[in-house]
Amino acid sequence: MMNKFLSIVVVFSFSFMNLETANAQQNTPEILVQKTFAKDIAEKTSNNLKATLKPLEAAFNRKDSPYNRYWLSYAIYYQAILANLQNRKEEAEMHIDRAIALLIPIKNDAESLALLSLQQGYSTQFKGYFALMQIGKQAMVNAKRAVAINPKSLRANLALAINDFYTPKLFGGGELAPFYLKKALEVSEINPIDSLPNWGKDQVYELLVKHFRKIDQDNIAQEYLNQGIAEFPESELLSDLN
After folding, report:
1. The pTM is what?
2. How many CB atoms lie within 10 A of CB 218?
3. pLDDT at 9 over 60
4. Position 26 pLDDT exceeds 60
5. How far apart are CA 174 and CA 107, in angstroms?
6. 195 φ, ψ to 5°?
7. Of 192, 189, 158, nearest to 176 (Cα)?
8. Are the C-beta atoms of 77 and 65 separated by less than 8 Å?
């Protein structure tokens, strides 16, 4: 149903500079997770992402804060995606369920709710029909709550758009996605703290291209694709559409 499925308002005290390697000191949690995920894909292993998880687990064990929950959940989400891609379905389901459980207690943070919504949507592919329907509804509720808390969050708008995009037309899906995708593109993100999330914009472009191709407006789709590739020339999501 939603198989392809982060402004943090708390002042965070934990610094990701606690990572043990000098190279890691130059990276944010987000970049490290994405780099090690890509490396595991290339090397057909899961060891690099596991190594990135260790300091995140240690930080969470030292202090249970929204920040630590968020980035640990984000990394475990990538563990789930990696396991799924490597055809380890039971492990993937275990990881995504844990990622979701970490974020459920965070009620009033748009970024956490947006990530939670995406994770819930992703988890539906591992569930039976009735669980799938219930989780799908909760994913939509959390996306709407994220937008209500922070209408200018790129990822909140993306989460709501994704939920609508992958909801069948029979159930009312497909109407709101372009509106929220365009709202996401209007966001000008300048994060004063480099450990705040920045992901998602290339996926906004991806969904806009898919939406306009679906309704046979290929010229508009190509315009968004050209914009996306110009901004994210290394995005596989976009290069696969070209």
Report:
1. 0.86
2. 12
3. no
4. no
5. 27
6. -95, 5
7. 158
8. no
Task: Supply the DSSP symbol for 46.
Answer: S
Distance of CA 165 to the CA centre of its chain: 15
- Residue 192 Cα distances to 7, 8, 122, 183, angstroms: 11, 12, 30, 22
Instruction: Give CA angle at 125 (154, 88), nearest 5°.
Output: 105
Type of residue at 163? N
Residue 22 class from Cβ within 10 Å (0-12 exposed, 13-18 middle, 19+ buried)?
A: exposed
At position 121, the amino acid (one-letter code) is: G
Over residues 215-233, the mean pLDDT reads: 96
Asked if the model's pLDDT at residue 45 lies above 70, the reply is yes
Name the DSSP class of 124. G
Determine if residue 106 is left, alpha or beta; phi over 0 gives left, psi from -120 to 50 gives alpha, anything else beta: beta
Using an 8 Å Cβ cutoff, are 213 and 223 in contact?
A: no
Supply φ then ψ for residue 210, to 5 degrees. -65, -40
pLDDT band at 144 (very low <50, low <70, confident <90, very high): very high
Q: Which two tokens stand for residue 182?
A: 């365009």
Residue 136 near residue 110, CB atoms below 8 Å? no
CB 53 within 8 A of CB 37: no
Residue type, 31: I
CA distance 145 to 148: 5
**What is the mean predicted confidence (pLDDT) over 201-222?**
96
Per the listing, tokens 């490597």 go with 86
Q: What is the pLDDT of residue 20?
A: 34
All residues at 6 or more sequence positions from 130 whose CB lies less than 8 Å from its CB, including other chains: none
